[in-house]
Amino acid sequence: MIDYSISTGETTLFCKVSGSGEPLLLLHGNEEDHTIFEHQIPFLSKFYQVIALDSRGHGRSDHGEECLTFQRMAEDVVTVLDYFKLEKTNIIGFSDGGNLGLYVASHFPIRVDNLIVVGANYKPNGLKTKEFLYVKGLFYYLKVSGYISKAKQKRMEIIDLMWHQLKLNEKDLKNITARTLVVVGENDVIKKKHSEVMHTLLLKSTIITIPEATHFLMIEKPDVFNSIVRDFLLKN
After folding, report:
1. Which DSSP symbol is given to 48?
2. Less CB within 10 Å around the terminal CB: N or C of the chain?
């Protein structure tokens, strides 16, 4: 496994690369980093060139001075692909990383081969009510605290990726040409109806619900999830 620091021109992104073969980019969720995939990287590296990225403002990647948006983060993904001279990649995105994967696939479709989104929601209200209220409350707390704390302001921008910055719509999803696998847990924080609607909007999608699993199904049932990923990618 090799560490890389990649310049975007105004900030630096960190990623770990392991294995060889077709590229497979891993995108983590909100307030996480690439280590969320600790149960996937060793397995997937046997078959693919795994690029485990810390998204802008997360882990060992810089936040930058500009406001954190999915547009900027999607452009970061393109920068990473260009750095490794990759025309396109497979993507696994978890939670907010799944939303980022949807954004990349809809706005830069020629750069995505196959897409796997895990616990993704293309609209903020795709979250169940309790979780969405928590996001709103935390955002307002950080907004007030941000007037006196730069760290709180930056964290507010990260939390806001789950609310105001999530600007995907039905047209965006219909523009996605990549084969897409939608994976959700039976007890996910994402509304079941929302996942089903997302599945119907994606032209080349399959949806799988993992029984007795929550939002963190990759951690709870890694062997099941890894097998699903491998089977899906092999069918390409």
Report:
1. S
2. C
Closest-CA residue to 122 (of 207, 203, 212, 202):
202
Q: Which CATH superfamily is domain 2-123+168-234 in?
A: Alpha/Beta hydrolase fold, catalytic domain (3.40.50.1820)
Closest among 164, 142, 170, 167 to 154, alpha carbons compared: 142
Greatest CA separation found in the chain? 52
> Strands, DSSP E only, in 75-197?
89-94, 112-118, 179-185
CA 215 from centre of chain: 13
Q: Specify the length of the chain in residues.
A: 236
Give the three-class secondary structure for 131.
helix
Closest CA to 163 of 183, 140, 147: 140
Compute φ and ψ for 32, nearest 5 degrees.
-120, -170
Contact indicator for 119, 185 with CB cutoff of 8 Å: yes
The CA-CA-CA angle for residues 221, 207, 70, to 5°, reads: 85
Q: Read off the pLDDT band of 210 (50, 70, 90).
A: very high
> What is the crossing angle of helices 70-83 and 96-107, to 10°?
70
The crossing angle, in degrees rounded to 10, of helices 150-159 and 129-145 is 160
Token pair recorded at residue 143: 């907004």
- Residues 114-138 have pLDDT tens digits of 999 999 999 999 999 999 999 999 9
**Tokens at 93, concatenated:** 């995105």
The structure tokens 């939002």 sit at: 215
Domains of the chain, residue spans: 2-123+168-234
pLDDT at 236 over 80: no
